[in-house]
Design brief:
3 copies of one chain form a homotrimer. The first copy, chain A, has 2 domains: about 5-145 and about 300-320, Aspartate/ornithine carbamoyltransferase (Rossmann fold); about 145-295, Rossmann fold, CATH 3.40.50. Chain A is about 40% helix and about 15% strand. The first copy, chain A, contains 12 helices and 11 strands. The first copy, chain A, has a 5-stranded parallel sheet. Chain A has a 4-stranded parallel sheet with strand order 2-1-5-6, with helices on both faces. In chain A, strands 3-4 form a two-stranded parallel ribbon. Chains A, B, C: Catalyzes the transfer of the carbamoyl group from carbamoyl phosphate to the delta-amino group of N(2)-succinyl-L-ornithine to produce N(2)-succinyl-L-citrulline. Is essential for arginine biosynthesis. Chains A, B, C: It is an enzyme of class 2 (transferase). Chains A, B, C: GO terms for molecular function: amino acid binding; ornithine carbamoyltransferase activity. Chains A, B, C: It comes from Salegentibacter echinorum.
Chain lengths: ~325, ~325, ~325
């Protein structure tokens, strides 16, 4: 693949999942990335994504440069033609071009503001890097998507599933803050690719972007949705219709063992961090129902598969084009 | 060793010191840690500990992931059964389990609050990582101990001593701030293991925890204690009895060449950073009496010996148990 | 070379530039730095300098330790004989000596305050490290110089020049803030070494330190200076005479295609970050006139050549002196 910005960048999902599985089995230090550099640029904090992606890169032999745009006070100008006499010291055109001189792959994290839907959906930061960088760009969670998480989730379900076409339920859960829709968006797109029996359940007012959910069944009755589920993916998100708002904190949507009784002994998933006894109850997280730690483990190998495929494609392109 | 949380984790101190000495002589890049990751998690700032441990890990071939829990705003919940609706986004149970997926060893620094003795002595953060992590845990200075510093100190004395059983004096010195007891605690435990002629001297009200000092002689007259000393270990600490308080700033306890006259040409030690002309005078630090830079140098090799022993034991365990 | 603190540390400039060119052509992972550590200490923020130097070190096989003196709140005492009872916890004597135990090369960035000319010119931080460190010291931009940038600039001009002795013009340009003179100072010294046809142009009141400009022609009419230029190096700086002040924001000094008409199809250079349409116009930066991205790329190889030469000299010295 050339970039990994959205699930549409995946050419062959089964091949990518197989690669990730094999990297996990081997868990070895490889040499393919020797002398290559991954630059990770964070406009927002990150723990798991940083650690797993850094580890993935190093297992491939790559060097890693980490930049915190926030704490380094690196205010970027994105407007074309701007007269830069304010506090913004560098234009994205130079920033992306310069990072491309030091990095063989650039990975970017940039959350939504959750104020203006159009602005968030423009994915200004990520798309600017894609436009102005001369090297591949990887999405470490953007305003509207988190495709590395979705790949981990697919890998985890593939590992755990006991039937070809399991029933997978994505359920909204309460949370004290208004959160982005990036994780449920990407999970939905991934489930559509996997062709599982996929259902989304959320309170009214919390329907995700219909251009993403498309034909996926959306049910407003959680109990009905959970029936016979093999996997329950739990996540809070803010409203898409009433954009970025927290409409309710309905505690009855929290996932507990009581809720799981109607399922087919479902495995419970969450991207973490998870608020215990708010989003998911202790009796689930501390039981064998939980798959959340496995998901976290698999992030390393999902990232490694993506970085490896990008490195391979870049090597091929440079050999073919003699433009090394 | 399985963990390195307290000096009691050391199985064979002489073997560990010999290993550290040999690593120092070789000062070479090893391969034993290739493909392995050390995660260092700081709840408090660190310079020397971070640099020396990071260098030690890299000399073993390990990759290093550094996390600043403070600046990354990673507020952890430690209470069992908590309903997580406050500002704490992740429970220690997930945090420790997730880090265990990315790291082969987790090293943690967490200072005391110096407000509530019972709370500090519970070593909540460090023990939670020990309980919930599935990989070995190393103490990078906790509320009540700094065992990597103590190992460095033992290595330094072993290098410099001119007789089998030197007289070692740990002396309190004045400081403008109230400091933890972690360094003197661990140094005391280490000296007890080394079976040197060990004396502690401090003003009244500054006696360390009697469960740690045990039978060690504690003298409240500094001049008397210093007589014929071969090593003088200087350190400020706050009161244990009047917990966490600074009772005095008695300048007469500062170590100077004048004070050293009564000693047996003693070498002066300090864990650094040191306040010049407050804790130790220029005429000592700028003279050949000082061993503080050697102590700092030895931190790399003490950490390297600990990490190497943990890696070896983990490799053995996984081979025996076939649970790789 | 022993240190790289100022251009005067360069023994053979042509050899160094040739080395940088060859490292650029090879762009390979080397082993010379294996088991060696570069410590980078930042008293001020850095993006490009950090990334390019870190990449350079890693391409040589070195490990890199990064320390942010600012954010880690590491307040250093520089005064000799100080009684350290204030907020400064460590003296530069210990700091430099300790870092020398963990690092084989120490690189330091410390900007000027732009308040007191004498104080800035004393280069207190950098010189203290030079005095008290026992390993080589590299300047990552100090109060009065930026020699790694100047080496990059020389490398870039050497790559692009179409005649032996091109005309190079360093021109002041407007900027909303008062900036240091470190980049124009070092560029001036470098151009004097290269023996090009070198001219400086700036508004009256902005003449650089005459001890640096020496016999270099300084012209206060920009149009006159630009005539037939092969290279135009654009940079803002604050006044040296009226030390550290911003005297004007004269927009007519901005470099645009209109301004370049009088040149010999000049290539335009800037150390970045650059304020678009304030310092240099879009029509230059977005055209083939611009060489700024090439300059940024070359920073890696300039740093790599410097680090490599220091490593080689250290290895030779230690072999000769048997003081390894």
């Amino acid at each position: 693949m050339k970039n990994y910005i959205d699930l549409s960048d995946i050419k062959d999902l089964q091949a990518l999942l197989t690669e990730a599985s094999e990297l996990k089995k081997a868990h070895a230090a490889l040499e393919i990335g020797k002398g290559k550099t991954l630059g990770m640029l964070f406009f927002n904090p990150s723990l798991r994504t940083r650690l797993s992606t850094e580890k993935a890169a190093k297992l491939l032999g790559m060097d890693v440069l980490v930049m915190n745009a926030g704490s380094d006070g690196w205010a970027l100008e994105f407007e074309d033609g701007a007269i830069m006499n304010s506090n913004k010291a560098e234009h994205i055109k130079e920033a992306a071009a310069v990072l491309s001189q030091y990095c063989d792959i650039i990975a970017v994290r940039a959350f939504p503001e959750l104020k203006d839907r159009k602005e968030d959906e423009a994915e200004n930061i990520l798309n600017s890097f894609k436009n102005y960088a001369s090297v591949p760009v990887v999405n470490l969670e953007s305003a509207t998507g988190h495709p590395l998480q979705a790949l981990t989730d697919a890998l985890t379900i593939q590992e755990l599933k006991k039937k070809d076409k399991p029933k997978v339920v994505l359920t909204w859960a309460p949370h004290p803050k208004a959160l982005p829709q990036s994780v449920p968006n990407s999970f939905t797109k991934m489930m559509q690719k996997m062709e599982f029996d996929f259902v989304i359940t959320n309170p009214e007012g919390y329907d995700l972007n219909p251009e993403i959910t498309k034909n996926t069944r959306v049910v407003h009755n959680q109990d009905e949705a959970l029936k016979d589920a093999d996997f329950v993916y739990v996540k809070n998100w803010s409203s898409y219709e009433d954009y970025g708002q927290k409409l309710s904190e309905d505690k009855s949507w929290m996932i507990s063992q009581e809720k799981l009784k109607a399922t087919n002994n479902a495995r419970v998933m969450h991207c973490l961090p998870v608020r215990r006894n708010m989003v998911i109850a202790d009796d689930v997280l501390d039981s064998s129902s939980s798959a959340v730690i496995l998901q976290a483990k698999n992030r390393t190998f999902a990232a490694q598969a993506v970085l490896k495929e990008i490195l391979e494609e870049t090597a091929n392109a440079s050999e073919l084009g003699k433009n090394a």
